[in-house]
Amino acid sequence: MAKKLVILGGGESGVGAAILGKQQGYEVFVSDAGAIKEQYKSDLQVHQVAFEEKQHTEARILAADEVMKSPGIPDKNPLVKKIRAAGIPVISEIELAYRFKGNSKIIAITGSNGKSTTTSLIWHICRHAGWDCALVGNIGYSFARQVAEAPKELYVAEISSFQLDDIKTFRPDIAVLLNITEDHLDRYDYKFENYIASKFRIIENQVAGDSFIYCADDEVIVNYLKNITPITNPLPFSMKQEIKKGGNIKGDQMMIRVQEERVSMSIYDFALKGKHNQYNTMAAGIAAATIGIRKEKIREAVKTFESLEHRMEYVATVRGVEFINDSKATNVNSTWYALESIEKPTILILGGVDKGNDYTLIEDLVKEKVKAIICMGTDNSKILEAFSAIVPKMVEVESAEEAVQSAFSLAAKGDVVLLSPACASFDLFKNYEDRGDQFKQAVKDL
Q: Taking the mean position of all CA atoms in its chain, how far away is CA 251?
C-alpha cells in the first residue's frame, strides 16, 4: 500500500514536495490553514494531488505515515504538537528532496546573513564553469520541485535553520556556514544556543570526503566547533589570519587554497562591494574550487556577478540623493552590514515586525553615519527608545510612499536614503519583496 504523506502548508515548498511525493508513489494530501494561491492550486490539480485550504482535517492528518511541514509553521503549533505526540515522523521539504536526488551533488549554504547572495554567487560561478546546476531552497524553486521536474547534476541550495530542524538523512557534499547572529529567537524558546545547534545540523550527516566551509572570524562558530569534531574536510575562511587550507584576505588580496591550484584575486575586482561581501565571495570561491572549478572561471564569474534585488540594490539618484533598497535586511545584523558599507551621511528607514531585536548592535554605526531615522512600522516604540537620544531627527510613517517622501525632505545633496528595516515586513506589507517594490516605486514617483 502507498505510504501516506501529509503536507502542511500549500506554498512553494509544500507544493514542490507534493509534486515530488506524488511522482514517487506516495498517497499525498496537502492541508493549509490559510488560502492557497491560485497558481499553487492549479499545480496541485494538474498533478491530481488532494488538498484542503482554510482548515485542517485532523483525522486525515493524524492518519499519515509521515508529515512534511512547511518551514514557516513553528513546533509550538497545536496541530504539530498532536502529530508529534502521535509518533508520526515530521520531515522538512529538503529531507524529502534529498531522498530522491540520485547521484547529484549538493552545495548547501546557511547562516544568519548573506545566504541568498552567497548561494546566488556560487550558482553563478558553477553555471559560468559549465555545470548543469540549479538554484534551490529559499530562493528560486523549492528543492523538491526541482528534483521532480528538472533534475540536475548539482543543486546549490540556500537552507534556513527552520528547514534544518526537520532533517533526518539530508547530507550536503559541501556545507557552507557563513555566520551566526541572534535571529528568529522567537522560534527557539529565546535561547541562542538552540538556534546555533540548529544551524550546525547542516553538517551532522556529513561523512569523510565531504567539505565544511565556515567563517573562522565568527566567534560563535569557532566556540561551538571546540565542542564538536566534524569528520569532514574543514575549509575555514578569514580576514584576520592566514589560512593554510581554505581562504583568506590579506590587504587587498583574496587567496584560496583548496586543492593543488591556488586562486588569488584583488578585492577591488569583486563585483560585490562591502566587507561582508568579501566574506561571501571567499566562501563562494572556496566552494567552487572544492568541486574543481578552475581559477580563471572563478575570477571571471566573481567579476561579472550582479547583486540581488532587495539586497543593497541601487534604485536611483534624485537631485543628488542616492536611494538604496536593502529590504531583505530582516534582522539587525543585516542592517549593520548595510551601514558598514556606506560612506555617506545616511537617512535610515527602519521598522516592521521585531523578532527580539537588540539595537545596541548598530548603535555605534548609527551615531557615526545616520542623521535621521524614519520608523516604518505599526509599533515603533523599541526603535524610538533605542535611538531618540542619539539621532537628531526621528519620524514615524505608515507606508513606503510616506517613508520615501519624508526621507527625501530631510536629505541634502550627497546623502543616502537607505531602506534597511532590520525587521520582518508582515505588519504593512506582504513580504520583504513587496516592501522593496513599494519603496522603489515611491522613489520613481518623486
A: 29
382 is in an annotated binding site: no
Type and span of the H or E element at 442: helix 432-444
Kind of pairing, strands 262-266 and 253-257? antiparallel
115 assigned to a ligand binding site: yes
Distance CA(339)–CA(276), nearest Å, equals 11
Q: For the chain, what is the mean pLDDT?
A: 92
Is 111 annotated for ligand binding? Answer: yes
C-alpha cell at 157: 541550495
Tell me whether residue 140 is annotated as binding. Answer: no
CATH code at 95-304: 3.40.1190.10
Q: Which overall architecture, per CATH, does domain 4-91 show?
A: 3-Layer(aba) Sandwich (3.40)
Q: Does the structure show a pLDDT above 90 at 309?
A: no
CA–CA dist 179, 240 (Å, integer): 15
Residues belonging to the active site: 115, 138, 184
Say if residues 287 and 173 touch (Cβ distance below 8 Å). Answer: no
Confidence class of residue 341 from pLDDT cuts 50, 70 and 90? confident
User: What mean pLDDT do residues 342-353 have?
Assistant: 93
Closest CA to 276 of 112, 106, 137: 112
